[in-house]
Structures are given as C-alpha cells and as structure tokens.
Model the fold of this input.
Amino acid sequence: MHFGNTIIRLSDTSSTNNYVASLAKAGKLVSGTVIMAENQTEGRGQMHRSWDSERGKNLTFSLFLENVSLSVTNQFILSKIMNLGVIKYLSSVGLEGKIKWPNDILVNGQKICGMLIENQVMGSTIQQSIVGIGLNINQISFRGFAATSMKNELGKELDLNKVLDSLLFYLNQAYDYYRAVPDPLTSDYLDVLSGYRTEMSYEDDQGQFRGIILGIAESGHLRVERRGEICEYSMGEIRWLG
Done:
C-alpha cells in the first residue's frame, strides 16, 4: 500500500468521499489514490455533521484503499492507524495532538483535524475503505465550534501541497508499521487519547455525569467508567462536555 501514488486535484466537489465512492464503483481508481479538493460544497464529518472549510485554506482529501482485508470486528484498527499517522505528522512540526474519540484530533483542546471512514464490506471482511481527512491549515477563524489551525498554532502560513506530501509520508509509515506489528497499536493510541484515565464531564441518554475513559474495546467502542459502572459507547451515544 502506498497512499499518494496517484493524486487527483479538484477545484470543487460535493464531497471528496462521494467523489471517490463514485469512481471506485466504476472501477476507475487504484488503491492508494488521493482525491484532494480546494472546496467541498457538502463536506461531511461524523454523524452527518457538515465540515466548515474556507476555499483553498485547508486540506480536504480522501484516500481510497482496496483489499484492506480487515475483519469487520477489527475495523477500528484502521481508525487508530490513520489517527496516529496524523498525530505523528503534527508532532514532526512541533504540535502536540490528542485524539478525541473516535476520529477528531485536537491541539490545545481545539479541533484541528477530523476524519470520516466509510467501508465496503463483503461477508465479514472489509474490502474497500474511503478515508476522508480534513486538516485545518491556513484558516484562522471558525464558526460554531472550537477549532484551530496550523497557522494559528505555528504563527505562519503553510503550503498545502507540502503539508499533504509530509502528511502522506506519516500516514504511509503508520499504516506499514501498525499493520505489520499490531501489538503496540492500542497502547500508542491510548497515549494520545484525550480524556484517558482523566475524570471529565459527559452526557449520554441517561443525562450528564462525571466519567473516566478506560480504553477502547476491540469493537472500537469507547469504554467509560460511569458512576462505578463500566459502559461501552458507540459513535453518537456519548458527548463530551469538558
């Protein structure tokens, strides 16, 4: 696997994930292809949330992976790999990233990166994955949520193509390493998981509570100690309150 063996640059598209999905369905993509857009009119995050990004200011792209050969029960491994690749890239430029489960990355408590991973399954095995990544680079203000950018954190403008090249290097490195040596993956992920072993405020369908993240289940569910009980949450079932 090599991410970025082919890079397709678009001016406008509804969503890079949608664009990749349509080409993949037609059999017109090679595994590892990157689709990058200057502007997404319908950029999506987790739980169908919109992704706010100014034209030409940030990296908004999707990776196409074929023959992933992960079982459905282990699908969260791909999320761990991709998050750790971004974390390692940020570290290389002097930024300390933290993962906000399942697929957001924070710097100084503010969102700098989000992911949307969509899988095609055959039987019990993932055959194809589309990994959409939005990384805030040169945008300086954001509407509606606490976010930051590399420019805000580093105090300088960055070249999007150079950032993409470097980021792809670290994503490739993480993918090769963790697929070959999966044992340390969970511990490396927990080292940068926001809220791990720290009491914080959350909300679930039973109301607000103080809880402690204990780890990630094999299924990818978040394991949280809630009023003396260990609960597992899937995406959308728990909300951070700070």
The CA atoms of residues 176 and 242 lie 35 Å apart. Residues 199-240 form a domain with the SH3 type barrels. fold (CATH 2.30.30). The mean pLDDT is 91.
